[in-house]
TrEMBL record:
Pfam families: EF-hand_5. Keywords: Calcium, Lipoprotein, Metal-binding, Myristate, Repeat. PROSITE patterns: EF_HAND_1, EF_HAND_2. It comes from Adineta steineri. This is EF-hand domain-containing protein. Belongs to the recoverin family. Gene3D superfamilies: EF-hand (1.10.238.10). InterPro entries: EF-hand-dom_pair, EF_Hand_1_Ca_BS, EF_hand_dom, Recoverin. Signal peptide: none annotated. The keyword Lipoprotein applies. Coiled coil: none annotated.
Length: 186
């Protein structure tokens, strides 16, 4: 990694950190996931009990997966812990023989994220789902539309494609990589 790509990667991960820090107290805790899930469930619609339950369990899974970054186990993830955790993860992913356990843990996280964006659970991300999620995370509409055009097949983003983009997002330190437009979804 050159210092330039390293700083790009750091910036990307720092941005992600602050998206998760929903109460803006400078660390990520389980409370942040409650806040995010409450807001997200408003996107899905409050009237569907089944979906609400799905969301609650997805939130728990995602929270557990992400709290692995809490290296000193004090219940909160600092920015340093976050960057260390993801730097290790990215290094592991760049190896030809990635530790299967690490891959498995990350897959769980990616699957959960995908299911949270796939609001109607039909196995692909439609443009309106993408736009809604982008809007939720404060991405402006033009950027959101443009990114969807780049990565989708016509009007939909297939599950496998989405998942491999999410993986590349963590791994890649290339400022021009197409996965960068997933900037908010992990
Ligand atoms: Ca927080
Ligand atoms: Ca900690």
């Amino acid at each position: 990694m050159t210092s330039e790509t390293k700083s790009f990667w750091n910036e990307k991960m720092t941005h992600l950190f602050y998206l998760y820090d929903a109460d803006r107290d400078g660390s990520i805790t389980p409370l942040d996931f409650e806040i995010l899930a409450d807001k997200l469930s408003a996107l899905v619609g409050q009237d569907d009990i089944k979906r609400r339950e799905d969301y609650a369990s997805a939130r728990k899974t995602l929270c557990q997966a992400i709290m692995r970054a809490d290296a000193n186990k004090d219940g909160k993830i600092t920015l340093d812990e976050w960057l260390d955790f993801h730097a290790n993860l990215a290094n592991e992913l760049r190896k030809p023989d990635t530790n299967p356990e690490v891959l498995e843990q990350l897959s769980e996280r990616i699957n959960t994220t995908f299911n949270m964006i796939d609001l109607n659970h039909d196995g692909y991300i439609a443009k309106d789902e993408w736009l809604k999620t982008c809007q939720f995370f404060g991405v402006d509409e033009k950027t959101a539309e443009k990114s969807f055009e780049q990565i989708s097949d016509g009007d939909r983003l297939e599950e496998d494609k989405a998942k491999s983009l999410f993986l590349e997002y963590i791994k890649s330190d290339d400022p021009n990589h197409v996965s960068n437009c997933c900037l908010c979804f992990l």
